[in-house]
Amino acid sequence: MNGTRRDFAKATLAGLSRVVRMAGVAGSAVSAQAQNTPKSNRSFINGVQFGLQPFCYHDLPMTIENRPELVRRLVQNEMGMVELHATWCEPRFNTAAMSPQEARQKLRDWRVNVPADHYRKIKREFDDAGITIFTYYVNIGDADTDAEIDATYTAAKLLGAEGAIGSYGLSVARRLAPFPARHGIFTGLHNHDNLSDPDAFNTEASFEKGLSYSPDFKATLDVRHFTAANGDSIGFLERHHERVSSVHLGDRRRNNGRSTPFGEGDAPIIEILRLIRDNQWPVVALLEFEHGTLRKQVDEVRLMFDYCKRALA
């Protein structure tokens, strides 16, 4: 299917200049439409719900101060759903005048004591723009106290998220098993491509082990990393779709190869989207890229999204 993916990439690239010329007009039209469009439906395309992993905006530091610009870009990219990192919501305490230990304790204290209205306000910002916060991304580790973990899940719930997700391994996942049920949301398990780490989520077997810890755990299948680790994304979805909440959809070469523009790597992007569509699975496709580009990140996201729309046309 490589020829098919590359044909899609060429066709999409050929239309990029036209899309960029229309960006200003389209952005204004989307902004006006946002108030009248049911949230999460703006990026529901031919049976597949799309959203964005906003790490894609590599040039935009992930801070509270930049959150209004994040919302603006999501609207400009016609996204009705997002996976929101905690760094867009939490203050940063790691200054030159403070030791890492002090900064970590200040963040812990802030998380445990922050008023609920802090997160309700953030939710309103995204709601007003027609954007649903699907998942809340927080990296939890051994240093997190139980009170801090509970506060993280509370934050996710206040933001309207369906789940809390992060990059951690099997040992942390086992510890998290009781938490999602307390808050009525799921925990997302996210994979990487490090096959040498026995604690990591990196293979189908590691996912199966992690999912066995709790019925409230779901897989967030990172297609780029799974492809780089020579995993079978199609087979995984066919066997485990009932336990998959979303895919991080990007392209990459096999054998721990480099990240690429959509259609230039080995990830079966087209096949995944059609599998979700044809089976009507409620699996969210969160677009993500790490490859280098000379284009503006908003234009690169637009190009990716257009590639996906062509796949489902």
How is this structure best described in words?
With about 325 residues, the protein is an alpha/beta fold. The chain has a single domain, classed as TIM Barrel (Alpha-Beta Barrel), CATH 3.20.20. The protein is about 45% helix and about 15% strand. The protein is built from 14 helices and eleven strands. It has helices at about 1-15, 15-20, 25-35, 65-75, 100-115, 115-130, 145-160, 170-175, 180-185, 205-210, 225-230, 235-240, 270-280, 295-310, and strands at about 45, 50, 80-85, 130-135, 165, 185-190, 215-220, 245-250, 250, 260, 285. The strands form two sheets. The protein has a nine-stranded mixed sheet. Strand 6 (about 185-190), helix 10 and strand 7 form a beta-alpha-beta unit. Helix 5 crosses helix 7 (about 145-160). The longest helix has 16 residues, at about 295-310. The protein is globular and about 50 Å long. The two termini are about 15 Å apart.
